[in-house]
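Lecture notes, continued. The same structure-token format from the folding unit now serves as the input rather than the output. Read the line below as a description of shape only.
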């Protein structure tokens, strides 16, 4: 009996040590690429929180400003593969990390809201004097773009005007959105808190990999960089709070779907069809609901992150659409 008790005690102590080390394991260092990304950015104060953003003025061929808005659970770094061609074609590129993401502050016990994220974008664009922007938004930020469109349509946009909007795979229609298993778990009141605390690189990689196409998975370096940006400032601890956007989309469906149905702002969609979050019925529904729908569908096998899975095709389609809208006069690609 004593042997069993001693063995059990040793096991419990060992388990406690392993758990303590596991949950307090230090975040990975910045890679050279991430270090360069961070060093070339700036921070804005928003109600006491620091919001990271990149604001690049380039020698682009066309005098327009593109605002890049990222998805969940990643950051503005998602755009790094399309930036070279984008810089050649536009004069200014702005890429913020929304509150709770990337290199921005990630307050715990905070009520994250699409309205607040939209307020942050308005404040940023006023601060840096960017009165007219062309929005390219993905996933989570598709809803931020919809809210900004609703504000412009209602005459309540404060920074100037949205010239065009292009959306990449995102939950435009709440009824078609399919949250992944990990997202549903993280949303649970108690279990979600425990799971977020236990999340590590391997759990993150497993959960994110399922939304990419089988043959267009991120590289090992990309996974590490994405995890580093989530791990920064203990961001993995707030992922459940950030997922409040799923319920928020349903509550505000009339406002946000209405914004894209008005046909008041030039709108385009670039869609990866192998997306389990917004599965193929999405494209059909989009064409049915959006008047004179403008949509480019990527090759089979491209999933939820088109800008990372097929960056050359995404930037080609985006720039050619801007040219058709007469927003730009020429398209320049790296040869």
């Amino acid at each position: 009996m004593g042997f069993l008790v001693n063995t059990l005690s040793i096991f419990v102590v060992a388990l406690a040590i392993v758990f303590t080390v596991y949950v307090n394991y230090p975040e990975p260092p910045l890679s050279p690429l991430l270090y360069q990304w961070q060093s070339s950015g700036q921070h804005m104060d928003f109600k006491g929180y620091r919001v990271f953003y990149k604001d690049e003025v380039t020698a682009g061929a066309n005098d327009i400003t593109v605002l890049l808005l990222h998805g969940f659970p990643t950051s503005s770094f998602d755009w790094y593969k399309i930036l070279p061609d984008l810089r050649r074609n536009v004069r200014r590129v702005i890429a913020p990390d929304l509150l709770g993401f990337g290199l921005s502050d990630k307050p715990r016990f905070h009520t994250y809201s699409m309205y607040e994220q939209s307020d942050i974008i308005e404040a940023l664009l006023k601060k840096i004097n960017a009165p007219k922007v062309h929005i390219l938004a993905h996933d989570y930020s598709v809803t931020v773009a919809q809210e900004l469109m609703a504000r412009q349509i209602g005459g309540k946009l404060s920074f100037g005007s949205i010239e065009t909007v292009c959306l990449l795979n995102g939950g435009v229609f709440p009824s078609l959105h399919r949250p992944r298993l990990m997202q549903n778990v993280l949303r649970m009141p108690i279990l979600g808190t425990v799971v977020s605390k236990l999340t590590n690189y391997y759990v993150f990689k497993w959960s994110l990999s399922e939304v990419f196409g089988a043959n267009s998975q991120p590289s090992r370096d990309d996974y590490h960089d994405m995890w580093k940006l989530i791990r920064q400032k203990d961001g993995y601890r707030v992922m459940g709070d950030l997922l409040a956007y799923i319920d928020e989309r349903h509550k505000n469906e009339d406002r946000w779907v209405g914004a894209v149905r008005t046909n008041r702002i030039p709108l385009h969609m670039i869609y990866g069809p192998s997306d389990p979050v917004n599965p193929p019925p999405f494209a059909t529904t989009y064409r049915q609901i959006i008047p004179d729908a403008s949509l480019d569908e990527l090759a089979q096998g491209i999933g939820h992150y088109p800008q990372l899975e097929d960056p050359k095709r995404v930037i080609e389609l985006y720039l050619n659409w801007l040219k058709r809208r007469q927003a730009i006069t020429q398209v320049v690609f790296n040869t």
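Point for the exam: The chain has one domain: 33-324.
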